Amino acid sequence: MNPLQPIDHAALRTNQAMIILLLLISFIANLPWLAGVVGALMLAGALAGRPAFGWLYTALLKPRGWLKPDVLMDNRQPHTFAQGFGGVVLLAAGLLFLSGSNVVGWGLVWLVIALASLNLFVGFCVGCAVYYWLNRLQVPGFTQSPPPGTAAGWRPRREERG
Fold it and tell me: Would you say the pTM of this structure is higher than 0.85?
C-alpha cells in the first residue's frame, strides 16, 4: 500500500469543470465528435496519471492567481481510475454515435456530465467510490483504501492544524 500523497484538488476540479463545459458544448452544438475527443483526452490523462485538463490549471489559472491550490493528502489511483472509466464511457458514446444510436450516445454523455458535476459541486467521486469498493473486495490492482476518516468517494477533509 502506498502512502497518501499531496494531491491538488483545484487541478482536479478544473479538470471536471472543463469536462462538463466541453460536453455541454458538444451536446448543445450537436458535435458528437467533441465528446469523443474529450473521452480520448480523459483516457490519455488517465494513462499519464494526471488530469486531462490539468494543464489549464497549471499553465493559466494557478499562475495568474485565478485559482489557489487546494492540496489534500489523498490517493492518486482512484482519481486516475475515475477519469479513465469516464473516458471509456465517452468512447462508447462515440461508437454509439457512429452506429446511429444518438439517443443512447447522448445519454452516456449526460451520465458523464452528471457524475463530473456531482464531483465538482458536491465533492463525491463515484468512480473513486467504485475504486475503493473494488479494493474492499480485494480485486487485484485496486490497492488503495480511502484516506483515514474519509468515506469511499468523498473528498478528504483538510487536516486541522493545532
Answer: yes
Rounded Cα distance between 123 and 59, Å, is: 24
35 is in which domain, residue-wise? 5-123
pLDDT in tens, 6-42: 999 999 999 999 999 999 999 999 999 999 999 999 9
**Could you tell me if residue 50 is inside a domain?**
yes
Instruction: Give 38: exposed, middle or buried? Use CB within 10 Å, 0-12, 13-18, 19+.
Output: buried
Amino acid of residue 93: A
> How many distinct structural domains can be found in the chain?
1
Q: What angle do CA 1, 16, 64 make, to 5 degrees?
A: 100
Asked whether residue 135 is domain-assigned, the answer is no
Q: Which residue has the cell 473516458?
A: 87
**Is residue 156 in some structural domain?**
no
